[in-house]
Amino acid sequence: MPSSSLQQTTDNALERIFRQALSPFERFIQWESASGLMLMAAAVIAMVLANSALAHSFHHLWETPLSLSVGDWQLQKSLHHWINDGLMALFFFLVGLEIKNEVMAGDLATPRQAALPMIAALGGMVVPAALFFAVNQGSEFAVGWGIPMATDIAFAVGVMTLLGSRVPKALLMFLVALAIVDDLGAVVVIALFYTENLQTDALLVASALLAVMALLNVANVRSPFPYFILGGLLWYAVLQSGVHATVAGVLTALMIPTSSRYTQAGFSQHVRQLMDRFDKDGQNGSSRQSLLENKSQLHLLETLQSGLHAIQPPLVRLEHTLAMPVAFIIVPLFALANAGVAVQLGDLATTFSHPVVIGIILGLVIGKPLGITLFSWLAVRSGLARLPDGVNMGHVFGAGLIAGIGFTMSIFIDQLSFENNPQVLDLAKTAILSASVLAAMLGAAWFMLTSPSSRKTSVQT
Q: Is the backbone of residue 164 left (phi > 0), alpha (psi -120 to 50) or beta?
C-alpha cells in the first residue's frame, strides 16, 4: 500500500476514535450492561455447581479461612466473609461515588431533577417492605423486610438496554437515578436496622477518621492515596463497631474531592501551547521519522497525558478506574459465592409456600412496580415533579417491573437477615432469583406489548 494511502487510512481511523467519545452516562450504561451479563453468568455457574456432584467442594471452598496479620495483630475470616465484608466494600465505595456524582452534577443535582426518581424510589422501597412485613408479621422471619427493597442496577440496566428502541433514553436515565437512590436507601437500612451490639469506642474512632478525611478535602488534597489509607482504617473501625463494614465504602466515597486541580481555561491554554510545540517538533524532524524516534514529541505526549489525568476530578477518575474491576471481578465473585442454592424439585411446593419466599416475590414482582408507579403518579399529580419528555406512566410502570430485579443488594441483605438460619437463607435466595427472573420477563413483555420500536427513541450504547 502506498504511504499516502496508509497515512489516509490511519488518519481516518484516528478520526473515528475521536468521534466515538462517549458521554459519562453512555459509558456508565455500557459498564452496567456488561456487568449484568457477567452477573447472570456467575449466578448460573453457582447454581449449576451447587446442584452438581461438586456441591460439597463448592460450598467448602467459601469456608476456607484467610487471615491478615501484622505482628501480634490478626484478622481472620472465611473466604466468603472476605468477599462479603471486604471486596464488597469496594462495590459500595463505587456506589457512593455514583451517588455523589449524581447529587453534585447528575440527575439528582437539582430539586426538580431529583424529585421524581427520589419519590419513585421511596415508593419502590416502602411498598415491597410493607408487603413482606404483612406476610411475615409476628414471626421470626419479619427481620427480612429489607430484602425486597433493593434494585440491582446492573441487571435492570442490562434488560432495558436489550429492549433497545422500545425504551426512551429519558426513561433509562430515570431508572438509573431511581436505582442509585435505591442503593442509598439500602445502605441506610443496613446501617440502621441490620446492626448488632454497637461498640462506642470503635464508632468514635470511625468518626475521627471521617473528620480527618473531611479536613483533607477542605485542604484541597487531591491525591486519592491518603483517602484510601484512611478509608482502610475506617473499614476496620466500622467492622469492629458492629455496623456492617461495607458502609465504610460509601462514607469514604462521600469524602472524595470533586474539584479539579486546574481551571478549564488554564488547561485549554496549556494544551494549545503543547500542541503548538508538538506540531513544530514534527516539522523539524524528517518526514519519514516515526513517533518513536521523535523523542521530543513523545515527551510532549507524556506531558499531555499527565495533564489529562490531573484535570479530571478525583471522584471521576476513581469511578473510571474502579468500574471494570468492580463490574467484572467483584460483583460476579459475590454472585458466585452467594447465589449457589441446592434446588430439590420435590420440595418446590413447600419452598414457594414459605412466608419468606411469598413475601420476597410479592415485594419484588408486585410491590416494586406498584410502589414506583403509585408514588410517581402522586408526585406528578401534586406538582412536586414532572415526567421526563417522551415518558408516560405506562413507561414508568414498565420500569417499575424491571426494578423488581433485586439480585445483588437483596442477596446481601438476605445474608444479614438470616445468616444464622441457613435453611431460610437459601429459601430467600431461591425467592430472590425466581422473583428477579420473573420481574425481568414481565418488564420485557410489557415493553414488547406496549411500546413500539422507534429509531428516534433508541438507547444508544
A: left
